[in-house]
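Regression check, fe (ii) ion case 423:
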Amino acid sequence: MLDLLITNATLPDGRTNASVAVQDGEIVDVAPGLKAEAHETLDAQGQLLSPPFVDAHFHMDATLSYGLPRVNQSGTLLEGIALWGELKPLLTQEALVSRAMQYCDWAVGKGLLAIRTHVDVCDARLLAVDALLEVKKRVAPYIDLQLVAFPQDGVLRSPDAMDNLQRALDKGVDVVGGIPHFERTMQDGALSVKLLCEIAAERGLLVDMHCDESDDPLSRHVETLAFETQRLGLHGRVVGSHLTSMHSMDNYYVSKLLPLMKEANLGVIANPLINITLQGRHDTYPKRRGMTRVPEQMAHGLTVAFGQDCAMDPWYSLGSGDMLEVAHMGLHVAQMTSQSAMRQCFDAVTVNPAKLMHLKGYGIEKGCKADFVLLQARDPIEALRLRATRLKVFKRGKVIAETAPSVSRLSLPERPATTSWQI
Ligand code: FE2
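Current build output:
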């Protein structure tokens, strides 16, 4: 007897009338019209059953701190970093854990069950590292939380940051981070990329670096990141996050750069909500959008994900852990409006970040973990259009969050009694 049988589901790859059989927290079969005895059955009524949303770029140590100690007036990355510097001495472990746990509640309600968060290691107390290691332990039954050792103030620019980063990795932080464009010079930026990639190679870790998060068309750290990746044999284990300078680069140079990124099998994470608000702040008009060249990177065979990056923190005043909102913005900013491009935007918040995070057992296939989200939508494009309600969120075959269907009751002459915005 099965634990759970879901019938009549639509899957993101277009399969319809799919049945998903679950036993002991694992998917044991996926086939059309399965018939089997189960303790629990659910008729999906043709709605979309997706693997959970994945956010490969977030800052959980800063989340939900909006307004502490003040609001970012200029809206720039640099004021955000300065503001975070003002907040850091005021942080307590208790407050960090409490805000992160609240954000994780929001994430579960939105079907977001895997998050890679950067954690600032420039504070010698490693307060945020200890707090997020504690959060990682607490949420492990329902969220896969991956931590990146992130030297926010520059691993070379900030005193003791290299030592702090190594200590954070010793404590169990999973991934090596960096911020080369914030180092004092372009040369120091390149040196930081080299040193950090060498640390990852020695320790057998993944790399995820904030890279070229500026509107400077001459920022070249992604070139160095690609070079170090291939030099050290880290292919497929290194991610460049943001890469916003690529938006402003010369087209000829980009035509050389994209094949170098492909040669290194570099992953890319764009953060559309944040990139569109932080970038272009020094422009008058025309005002640059600032997001990296997502369609071109995808066309070159690179794995590209969209990240939330920030939610209610010194850099961004909005956000709720809704990866459909993130993908919706990415679709607009990148003008990815064809049918296939819109589906790629859905992949950019599901399978692509799962690949970049090296998640195991992810997907709706036999042998995968029974983690999925039932959406009030009939396909990925409708899910994006409606930022669809997450009707049920499953972890290892058990429902861990439910939301009532979104429907509006109408009182109109000679019109239907309700609408749910579907044709
Ligand atoms: Fe970031």
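Comparison notes: The longest helix spans residues 186-203. The pocket of fe (ii) ion is lined by residues 57, 59, 118, 210, 241, 309 (CB under 6 Å). No diff flagged against the previous build.
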